[in-house]
Each structure stands twice: as C-alpha cells, then as structure tokens.
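Hi,

Apologies if this is the wrong queue. I'm a grad student, and the batch job for Acireductone dioxygenase from Populus euphratica produced an output file that my downstream script rejects. I'm not sure whether the problem is my script or the file. Here is the sequence I used:
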Amino acid sequence: MAIEAWFMDETSGEDQRLPRHCNPKEFVSLDYLAELGVLHWRLNPANYENDEELKKIREERGYNYMDLLDICPEKVADFKEKLKNFYTEHIHADEEIRYCLEGSAYFDVRDKDDRWIRIWIKAGDLIILPAGIYHRFTLDTGDYVKLMRLFVGEPVWTAYNRPQEDHPARKEYIKSMVTEKGGVALEAY
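Support response: The file is valid. Your script probably expects a header line. Output copied below for reference.
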C-alpha cells in the first residue's frame, strides 16, 4: 500500500494525533511530495537487517549511522512533553531520514504555499525530508511507532524552530524550490 498524504484542516483545534482531513478530503500525490523534496520508499520492515534495497539506499545516499527508537508512553520519559516538542514547527540543517518498522505516525510538511500536508507513515515506509523544509512530527492515535533513524556521519538532530528564513539550510531549500520556468521561490509568512 502506498503512503498516504493529504492537505490538513488547519482550523481544527482537535487532538494533533487525529488525521485532520479537510472537508472534502484533499489527498496529495507522491509526485507532489517529490516536488517538495520529500522522498519515499516502501520496504519490508520484517527484513530490515538483511534488506538489500535498504542497503543500496544507505550506500547510495551515504547513510552510515543507524539507530532504533521506540516512541510510546511506556518507553519515553515525559512522553506528552516530548510529543509536544516534536510537534513544534522546525527545520534541520540535514535531511531527516526515518524508516517505520512498527506502528504508525505522522510527519507534517509545509508546501510551496505554506499549507500543511500530513504524511501518514506505517510499517515499511522509509521517508526522507530535505534539509530546510518546515515540518513537525506526531504519533497517531495508536500512540506507538518504532523508527530507524539514519544519518550521514555521526547523528546530529538539532531542531531550529520557525522562523528560520536566514538559516543556510532554509535558504538552500528555498533556492531549490524555484522552478526552471521562472517560477517564484517559497515565501515565508
């Protein structure tokens, strides 16, 4: 099953763990996510230790560091506070690479018009968010996900909360969003 993504209803004050679909629902294609620099692979999470496709992705993209992370109330100290922090809009100076091995969760990313897109990852989804893209993370109502985190070199996970328009990674991301046909770069609010 392909990854699901949709424009979010931003007016709702509901629980961040709910799908928050617009009415009517507005789904987003993998091609549109790719235009934003968001990449996706569907792999076999039961075989992650011996998966040749995962090995190939890691080699081609230089992901030489890996760790595993369980996110659930039973395994994360100050769970509610951590989830609140993950849900704060931010960027990173490097790609964010996550492979869902069990459970499910949401990554929200901003599109070219600053609209939120909710991406629902489930077991088998490997997702890469480009450096400089505004995003946030939350669990869904299952309250559990096991993720593989991949990094180039030593793990660095520094979040830079919005606004970050002068951050080099954000500037580079905006530059990459300029279309070849004389389009306009992303503008922050």
